[in-house]
User: What shape does this take?
Amino acid sequence: MKKTVIILFLFFISAGVIIAQNPYSLENLEKLSEQELDVYYNKALKLQKSGKTATRVGLISLGASFLTIPLDDSGGMVAATTIMVVGIPALVTTIVGVSMNSTGKKRVERINLIKNSALNDINIYLGPCLQYNLAAKNYQSGITLKIKF
Assistant: This one.
């Protein structure tokens, strides 16, 4: 039973991560306008900066909790309590901050790649689309042609 629960939990986590990364895929970023790319770029920069901040706060808190070990005169009780109360959340914050920083950095690199390549050539996108017809009250298929230069 525990294995099944763990496997399902990991499956849902990985599915969420895959869905979250889809907007930042190269295929999706190539279809966006310059203004939409700027919005994604600002979000990625904010994620990267938040990751750096969380990493710094986590490392400082972790270091401060371990500094109580040599300063403890009560036989290690204060140090152990401090490490349990402050050290473990600080470690988790550091791990989350590192992952946020690396994810934001990769997203910024992808967006910069798309922005730099968009300036050098003409991008043509041809894809299917659906348009709602008010008179017939149904969807009609069509083709979208976007040319960026």
User: Anything to note?
Assistant: The chain has a mean pLDDT of 81. The beta strands are 123-133, 138-148. Residues 32-121 form one domain.
